[in-house]
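BACKBONE GEOMETRY TOKENS
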Amino acid sequence: MPESSRCRARGGCHPPSPGDVVELRVHGVIGASADDILDRPHVQRVAGDSKGGFYRPRRGYGDSRGACGVVLETYRWSDLRSGAAARTLSLVLLLPFMACNAAAWMRPRAKVSGGVVWVGCRLVGLSLTALYVLSFVGVALDLLACKCMSLDSCLGGRTWLSWLGGQPVGLRIALLALVPIAAIWVLWLVGSRCGRWYDNFIPPTGEPADTPLGSIGTHNAKPGVVRLRSIHVATGLAVLDLSLIAALWAGRGPNLLTVLLTFCAVLTLVASVVLLCVPSVIDAVAGTPVVDGVVHALRSTAVVVTIAVIGRVAFDRNEWPAENGLPGHDVAVVLLVGAQVVLLALLGIAAMVGREGSLGRLRWSGPPLFACLAVGLGVSFATEFNYRVSDYLDRDLPTADVLPTSPVLAYKWTMFGFFVSVIGAAVAGAVMVLFTRRHRRRTADGIVARDFPEVAARTARRRAQVRDAIARARFTERLCPLAVTYCCLVALSLGFTALALDELQPSVAVEGLVSLPSDFVSAGTQLGSYLMALLFVGLFFGGLFAYRMTAFRRYIGTLWDLGMFWPRAAHPFAPPCYAERAVPELACRISMLVRQGKYVLVAAHSHGSILALASVLQLEPSVVSRVALLTHGSPLRRFYSTLFPAYVGTHVLSEAGSRLGWRWVNLWRDTDPIGSWIFTPGRKGDDALRQRSAVDRRLRDPQDLDARGRDTVWPPMCGHQPCVTDDRYEAAVCELSERLRTG
């Protein structure tokens, strides 16, 4: 429906005339209702739907125009990555996969190092899927089928388990093997269906953009995701197959059928790893039947082998000491965690070799940091899952070093490692805060003295508050040593699990190595379990209240938006990428307005600036010549350019500014811990540098220290809040509008 017809049908809004400037506002992480974004009480949707829609003030209810007569419009996209509580909670389950997927997009610009990081993150993602399956194998096969069902004390009073207690161990394992299979199916279901709210969107059909960031949403990424999903499903089934085959080897020893099944399962694992090491195969465009045939054959082979293995185990009547647990499960957990440590070290080395700038900058530490976060969360979930089920099976008996229904020893080492990582990171963070506090305060004192040269006794307290706010905001620039410390602690703590192969308890081993009291180590291990439970509960309620309460939305929403912005490239079960709709939809709207003869001023706050930048890079030259960009509270340099140098580096920012003809203004505050300047805080140099310097406009915050005679309270510190109610924001709107009109 044409816009004029749409407006008449919805209450008589009058479309702007050709030559008008449309101020298209894009909100950030916190989001808001359309009337709050536009600062108008009555609005109506003129395009899009309830998930991602464009809104304008309704005419006839006050002034519907903005500064200097611009037409107000907003793009509200916050519901694309939120919605029902069940869907938001599913993101908690997918959080390790999301962090791993984001790590792949943080690869350096260097071709070799970037390729190594890309492949390494995909292999880390594959190990997370294997760990997910192993955690269910540990619960269903090791704890339930082997240990619990071999003990009368565990089966007593549990009719839902006792009916299997007298059955052969092979039959018990075969039946409970359906639990890990169901877990794989749930993972497939959640990963594929939690993006159904994009179904109403009509994707673009034009050529992809010529920049990696601008190509988001302009090409069909589904074939690559489907291939990755098949590979991960095949890997999960192969891990289950090898766990079941270990029981066959324990009962009957090797025979021709067992050796053949073992060979097929190992071959499936090796083929999955090899395919992930060849990015051109996975990332091939649609319509490549050879690649799709190989991947489909791999998944089908895994399914057939799984059916054969389960059938063989179900009819196995050989008895073996099942009360000792599933054979080889403890070794499998240690080997998998050891492989993850090697991959994390490889990522760290590749990112450091391909870095741009000094080692003290956060620019190179993104891939190992987020990969460590993904592995740490995955190991924590697996450990806590096994120990909570174990606590239920042992009827809440006091936790000892070894109980009949205890999980494998490797999980106790991961609990102790988690305790060491948390304590070490907390100590490192405290040291960093204290170590950098003097320098940050000295810098903040200089800023305050420059902004408020007049010193008065009545403003001394407020001056100190402003200085402390600026000092806290500048701590973001000092996170690199803390990130490196955290990565080293995670890798070291995961390496502790190798000691489980010698059947060493953490309390005994640590006491012998560093002479710490065994009781202290046991208490630390127990505390690690509580910290894991607290982490899971925190994420659970954080996901439940995310985008429902401002306090949760500010912190949980930042992590969600950072991870869900990037397409699924490293892990197919990561949450779907909302930018695949938001970016092309915003670009299409801008193009539509320009074709109607209007100028478009895109005003983006916080995370909305990355959506605006990607959309600008998708515009045709004839369209972008009638577009200007106004960003405020933008994390483009502080976070995105630092963490994603290959996609939002300085070369991409300069390319966007050049395409816009440098019709770009960025407003930033020293008190903002997220947003900052983009090109330069204000330097002099050649013409190119002066163009970049003209983009950034620093806003003094607060505007004054003393409100006496003008107000009853001190002028507020705005920090990361939007600037739309600031007079300096309106001045920037008027300036850019005039530059568009005079072209």
User: Anything to note?
Assistant: The radius of gyration is 29 Å. The longest strand covers residues 599-605.
